[in-house]
Structure formats: C-alpha cells, structure tokens
Task: structure prediction
Amino acid sequence: MMKIELLREFLLLSERLNFTRAAQKLHITQPVLSRHMKELEEHVGAPLFLRDTHQVTLTSAGYRLASEVRKILHQYDESMTAVRTFTGNSRRRLSIAFLGEAIRQPLVTLVEDFRQQQNDVVVECRDCELEEVLSLLDAGECDVGFLIRPNFMPQRPGFGALPFQTDDLCVAVNRLHPLAQRATVSLRDAAQWPIIRVDPREFSLSEQYSTRFLSARGIDFNLYKEFPNLKSCCFDLELNQRAVLLMPRHRGYLLGDNSMLLSLAEKDCWFSLELVWSLRNRNPCVMLFSQAFSHYLASRATTA
Result:
C-alpha cells in the first residue's frame, strides 16, 4: 500500500525539480528521497524523472502523475478535515502558494508570527510558478497566493489583493553582448536585438510579462526564440551573445555567471508584488492572514 507521504514527497519534488532542496524541505536526506522516488517509479511502472548533471525534469508520465497526485492530496486533505470536523477534532487550515525568491524570506517571518497568533491553524506553503498559483487559486486548491503582476495589467475580477512591493523590469544579456557595457538601456535599445521569451503555449501570460512592454509602446521587435520556462531562457543567455531577455529584477538569481541584468531608462516599467485571494473563498483564515500581513507591512514601514 502506498503511503500518502510518498505522494507528498513526489509532488514537492515535481515542483522544485531539485533533489537537494526538496530533501531539505522535507527534512530527509537526498539518498532517502532518491530511494523513495525509485520505489514510486517501480510502483507506477514508468520513470518519472530525467536527471543529468545540470537539471532534473519530469517525464510525460511524471507530468501526468503530478496532476493526478495534486487532486488526490487535495481530496485527502478535504476528507480528513471533514472527518476531524465530524469528530470534533478539527484544525483550521490555510494554504499559501508563493513565487520563490520574491517572498520566501519575508514569508518565513510572517508565517512564524501568524502561527504564534493562531496556533490552531495549520499553515501549508508551496513554492510554485506563476501560472500554477493562478490555477490553484481559481480551483480553490490554495487559499492565498503571492503573485507578481505587470503594472499595466488590471487586477483579476473576483479577487482581492494587497500590494506590498514593486519590482523593476530589467533587460538580461550575456556579459559579452554589446549592450552589457551600458549602465542603463531603453526599451528601444533592447528591441534592436533578437528577443527571447517563455513560450506562450507553456505560460499563457508570457507576452504580457515580457514583450507587451514593447508592443504597448509601439516598439517593433524581432522574436528570436521561445523556451518552455524562464530558467531555459536564462540558460540560453549563457551561450547567446546577441539576444536579450526582459524579466523582473527579483528573478535575476536565475542568471548564470555569463549573464547580467541591465536597468531600464524608462521608470514606468515595473511589476507589482501582491497577496491575492479569491473573494469566493469562505475560509475565515484568509481574512486573518491578510490582516496579519497588513500589520507586518505596517511594522516594516515603521522600522524602515
């Protein structure tokens, strides 16, 4: 019989795609996690991960299993909550989805404080890509999400939001790119070179989060190539001395040693980082958490 924790380990690894980081998050060793995934692959009868010296990726079977496991775990958690409520042993829950480096460290402090104030609330956090957070919020599979939104994009209908930070749009280039010698560049400067971006078939909002900043200003550009994700775009810059990539500043940690971020001369190109929740969500912990986050922002402003 398969243990539910094995499925949780698989889902976390499918999202992180890094055995070391996933093992640290799970508080187990990497060899133990590897052994567990091998057991799962034997149970499924198909390889779930492709590994080489540079990266870990999901196989087609891995992608399908991740989708199914997410449903299974959601149903399991809902069922356990229903049973605990029936037996009088219920604990309130809050599920948080967030976007990696932009919020990870503040979120640690925030969640620790929230748990102390609301010690009967079980808080679950998951690091996701943007479109996955949006999907989880729409499906009601997470209660709140920390999102990033271009400043020209309106807030999504039916959602509440609490902005907490802005992040500049930047131009990423190879260190041997002709623009790399400049302190700042304009969007027109960047558009003189081939543009790479995330494939809209993989991320439907790719255009809005990158080249829309150009097209909104009537700036023509040459789209060079599209990649499955931002990590792949950044890797291409390591080898490409001609292309440019438009990206938020906080995602600069994805760049390799051969690449760099350039500031824009335009000061009206930025992203808003926000706490977002569905107005249809009836979980009372959402309001408690948004209030705690408001207090956190106020205290941070006071000490700044």
About this structure: Residues 252 and 261 are 7 Å apart (CA to CA). The chain is about 40% helix and 25% strand. The chain has a mean pLDDT of 88.
